[in-house]
Amino acid sequence: MNTNIITPQGYIELEEELDYLWRKDRPAVTKIVQWAASLGDRSENADYQYNKKRLREIDRRVRFLRKRLEELTIVEYSPVQEGKAYFGAWLVLINDNDERLKFRIVGPDEIYGKENYVSVNAPVVKACVGKSVGDPVVVVTTESRQEWEIEAITYGPF
Predict the structure, then answer these.
(1) What pTM value is reported for the model?
(2) In angstroms, rounded to a whole number, what is the distance separating the alpha carbons of residues 54 and 2?
(3) How high is the mean pLDDT of the chain?
(4) 47: Cβ–Cβ under 8 A, 6 or more apart, which residues?
(5) Which tens digit of pLDDT belongs to each residue from 44-89?
(6) N or C: which terminus of the chain carries fewer CB neighbours within 10 A?
(7) Which of 74, 105, 132 is the last residue of a domain?
(8) 91 near 128, Cβ under 8 Å?
(9) Is the separation of the CB atoms in 125 and 3 below 8 Å?
(10) Same domain (yes/no): 23, 68
(11) CA separation (Å) from 2 to 8, 99, 119, 144?
């Protein structure tokens, strides 16, 4: 499956992160580095050492985000998707023990720090794609085999 896809909301969040790092975080850390460097001996200056490292981390993340944003394809919702489990959908699965699993199908760049966001590459998503409410879903991983049923699919707020 294409791993260079992202929801419109996910793309905006990555753009906002890039903007914050470049316009706010990096200038603030640069000022600290300049101040710490002006104090003289840099080899034993903890402020200089730490913030210089932080500056490298920010620059690395900025480079990554700029490149990644160019590679990503925004996948918009289409009414054709309605009633079926596709990219961007919120799903609720239920098993025989009445356990529910609620998640949103998103690109791999969107799952970090988000509860209930699952990558299009995950086994549970692969088992659900194209299915409708009431359809059985068998999720097979190297550790287990689980049977679920799709209880709900929505593309709006859940």
Answers:
(1) 0.86
(2) 33
(3) 93
(4) 32, 35, 36, 39
(5) 888 899 999 999 999 999 999 999 999 999 999 998 899 999 999 9
(6) N
(7) 74
(8) yes
(9) no
(10) yes
(11) 16, 30, 11, 25
